[in-house]
Structure of Prolyl-tRNA editing protein:
Amino acid sequence: MSQEMKARARFVQNTLQTLGYQVEVVELAESTRTAKEAAQAIGCQVAQIVKSLIFKTKDTHKPILVVASGSNRVNEKKLGELVGEPIERANPDFVRQHTGYAVGGVAPVGHPEPLTTFIDQDLLQYDQIWAAAGTPFAVFQLTPRDLQGMTQGQVAAIS
């Protein structure tokens, strides 16, 4: 693993500790870039993977973070209604600019500025879920309640 990847995972670990969460970032040999890859590497259901997806409002170009269950697709029309304006998927440069992470490793925490966040209500059915930790090879386990606390996100039906 490259030094940059290790540094990003360490940054997420430090951010989680600063926020008061006693969770451990785990770096894996296998890629966790996609929800399916992450579930296979961890040994959990795809639905227990937290996908951190960045969208952009079409009119105001504001970043929107959606933390979705790995088995769900975000309904962009429904998300736009929640946000109050149409949205679109953000490109990789926009994602890195507003989160500090590359696509495939976006953590739900540690962004340069607070992001408007929506949490997929389907994640709430699980005792334990897994989120990306800054790189396509790093993850951390948490509870849906912890996810709500650390992101200050609004729970919604997003699929």
About this structure: The CA atoms of residues 56 and 62 lie 5 Å apart. The chain has a mean pLDDT of 94. The domain at 3-156 is CATH 3.90.960.10 (YbaK protein).
